[in-house]
Amino acid sequence: MKKILITSLISLMLATNVSADTDGENNLSKKNSGEVKDCFENVNRATFKFNQVLDGVIFEPVAKAYRILPSPVRAGTGNALDNLSTLVTIPNNILQGEFKKAGVNTGRFIVNTTVGVVGIFDVAEKIGFPEYEKEDYGQTLGVMGVGPGCYLVLPVLGPSTVRDTAGSFANILGGDAWYNVTVANDTQHFSDFDYYASRASSGIDFRAKNIDSFENLEKNSIDFYASVRSLYLQDRQQKIANSNAITETQNDSDWEEIEAQ
Amino acid sequence: MRLKKFLIFTFVIINFVGINQSYSIEPDVFVQSTVNRASEALNNKYSKEEKIEKLKQIASETVDINGIGYYTLGAYRKNISDNEINQYEMLFEQYFLKSFSSRLAEYSNPEIEVVSKEKLNENYTMVSSILVGTEQRPEVKIDWRIYTKNPENPLIRDLIIEGLSLARTQKEEFSSIIQSNDGDINALFSILKEFIK
Fold first, then answer.
1. A221–B173: do the CB atoms touch at under 8 Å?
2. Angle between helices A71-95 and A99-114 (to 10 degrees)
3. Which residue spans adopt a coiled-coil conformation according to this UniProt entry (chain A) (predicted)?
4. CB atoms within 10 A of CB A75
């Protein structure tokens, strides 16, 4: 029953996504994050404010406390969480046709989970398995040509799009091996708590790594909500393009236009 | 007499050559030199106020503030009067210098290494650099969009940090403010005035 409900919800979201992109053009090909519509801006802004309050009360203080921990402890925690996220990256590598990366990531996961003590030490990197970018189901949908749809701000989880939110549901529909062995199935070895604790820790780890950048951005933005939206959409656009080449992700025509001044 | 003529001739030639000699500056050399100046300005021997003043001076000389201002305003600049454009240019310059300098003033002794450059066309070259990581922050990739229309006076038009363009972020921020105020540019002016107070 739960699966039927989730599947229906995803279908509905993707249908909304299609209607939001009825011009038939692939937004990614326009290479402009500004093309993504903020269809629910009022609700999004309210949720954004709620998240900011929540961040001020819970996440920021916890992240600041976390930063007090010795550097090797933080590095080890970050590595272990990265190692768990590989379980979502590998199927997405395969779905995107990146079989070599899927192989390397599988090797990384096996080596780091065993020799690297549940991923605390990145032994794989040292023996020649390079670390690749993380992949998720939202990115895979993007690579397959699904447009981002409307911009969304989710309570607690933060910025997203209809496509990326729909992609996240794949994790709980069997697409995340870590979710499968903790929450979805009773394996006797892990509990629901392990999954939710790892997710919360990932959030804290990310927040701790970006405390200064967030503070700086908030202080120097005249519309913080719009800045975060722009940065999120640019970041997703770049990740879906799987490219570090600036020239592929920036639109030169934006600049050429001002030459006519 | 002959010697005098020779000296005058030599003097004229030297001056002529000197006046017509142009010095184009390579974009990567320009970025490294700008970064070195900024690093010196961020030295801890200066107070925060001194750092901000020095950074503003560097930005005034090396950033195409007017160009970024036009880009940031986007299509709206076509629908506003000359008077409003002048007001915008003045406000944007102050906003930019304050925002730019206070963003950077938080860093102390940043170490930036220029890695490579890529010429996009006659007007633009992208210079890639790395902000060397420390125990507090990871390594950060920074790309610089350099406007090279006048090769003797290259100017910075954008900073792209880990693939995220600051100019584009700013453009979308401004656009959001104007849109949520029914296209009224004066709403943006009020917010900019409030920011630069």
1. yes
2. 150
3. none
4. 15
Identity of the residue in B99, B128, B137 whose CB atom sits nearest the CB atom of A220: B99
Do the chains contact at B123 and A34, CB–CB below 8 Å?
Answer: no
| Residue B155 and residue B58 in contact, taking contact as beta carbons nearer than 8 Å | no
Hey, what are B14's tokens?
Answer: 């030297």
* Torsion angles phi and psi, residue A132, rounded to 5: -100, 170
CA atoms within 13 A on the CB side of A135: 27
Q: DSSP labels for chain B?
A: -HHHHHHHHHHHHHHHHHHH------HHHHHHHHHHHHHHHT-TTS-HHHHHHHHHHHHHHHB-HHHHHHHHHGGGGGGS-HHHHHHHHHHHHHHHHHHHHHHHTT-SS--EEEEEEEE-SSSEEEEEEEE---SSS--EEEEEEEE-SSTTS-EEEEEEETTEEHHHHHHHHHHHHHHTTTT-HHHHHHHHHHHH-
In chain A, residues with a C-beta closer than 8 Å to the C-beta of B157 are 255
CB B116 within 8 A of CB B102: no
Which residues on B lie below 8 Å from A257 (Cβ)?
Answer: 71
- Order of strands across the sheet that contains B112-119: B112-119, B124-131, B140-147, B155-161, B164-165
Backbone angles phi, psi at B126, to 5 degrees: -95, 125
Q: Minimal Cα–Cα distance from B55 to chain A, Å?
A: 16
Question: B39 pLDDT band (50/70/90 cuts)?
Answer: confident
> Within 13 A of B160's CA, how many CA atoms are on the CB side?
24
Report yes or no: A179 and A198 within 8 Å, Cβ to Cβ: no
The CA distance from B119 to B117, in Å, is 7
Report helix, strand or coil for A154: strand
Mutate to test the interface with A, among B172, B185, B191 (most CBs of A within 10 A): B172
Predicted confidence (pLDDT) per residue in B150-174, tens digit: 999 999 999 998 888 999 999 999 9
- Interface pTM (ipTM) of the complex? 0.81
Which of B173, B175, B190 should we substitute to test contact with A (largest number of A Cβ atoms within 10 Å)?
A: B173
Q: How far apart are CA A230 and CA A34, in angstroms?
A: 7
CA distance A7 to chain B (A): 34
- Does A66 score more than 90 pLDDT? yes
| Global pTM exceeds 0.90 | no
Query: Would you tell me how many other CB atoms lie within 10 Å of the CB of residue A59?
Result: 21
Of the given ranges (A124-128, A169-173, A247-251, B144-148), which has the lowest mean pLDDT?
A247-251
pLDDT of A162 above 60: yes
